[in-house]
Amino acid sequence: MTHKVVSVKTYATVFLCLIALTATTVGVSRIELGEYNFVVAMTIAVMKGSLVVWFFMDVRRGSSLTKLFVGAGLFWLAILLVFVLSDYLSRGWLPGPKWW
Amino acid sequence: MADIETHPAAHAQGLKHHFDDSAQQLESSTLGMWVFLLTEIMFFGGMFGGYTVYRNMYPGAFASTSQFMNLAIGSINTGVLICSSFTMVLAVRAAQLGKKKSTITFLVLTLILGSVFLTLKYVEYYEKWKDHHIPGPGFRYAEPQYFHEAQILFFLYFAMTGLHALHMIVGAGLLTTLIVMASRNRFSAEWYTPVEMIGLYWHFVDIVWIFLFPLLYLIGHTSSWGG
Hints:
The structure holds 2 protein chains of 2 kinds. By secondary structure, chain A is mainly α.
């Protein structure tokens, strides 16, 4: 096959990063940070997810078309979540009748 | 036949004749797999969206129910799944190098780790069952003011982790198929596409858990966001 094989060292480094990030997110969750607990937890989750997509799923060495597809998927997911949440989370911001 | 010259007699193993070469074929398969995974992202995305909406609608009930999430099992399971992604990637690497024996070893390790995850999930579900925390007629809850709202949140917990567990079970079946295929010498350094594609699927299921874990187990006992 034309693909060069990735070294075990690279995979092991990514693996150790993932374990370290998991330990970090569990540790930080025990500290009371108010709203920032959510922000930290989701930031670490995005970092972990990106590591898996980029290295383990090998998008890093994938074709431009593969990268475009992955990007399009994330964009559509963003449309789904942003549009739904911009409705629900903004309800009650303005004075007026409460609908739910 | 005229196209005998454009069709070399020695076709690379596993190469379908409508592809130019193995690299093109692998890229097509990868792209197809990603399209499938994108539909899965949207599928799970709807549940994540619904979960966020209800969590913000019922912040009190959310804080109340999240104290019943088993953080220890959740954390261990996160580690187990990350280990299984690591063994999966090593299985794909071994397949790329055409090493049959280590491909099978790493696939079996991945399958074992997946089973450990599902076993711990079963322990967790059984705990909920004993506590009457399954939504429905048998539901009991310590704080009666949250009786209805808590059922919605427990329902979302079971729907999301259940759907994830279902994907794990399907993944375990796919891994078993790969192990059988590998032991029958179906793969070589020239053709190992199924190992790579099922690897992508396995990593995707891992990513879903990477997001489920903080949302269900980590941010509950602190204040809710946005609500």
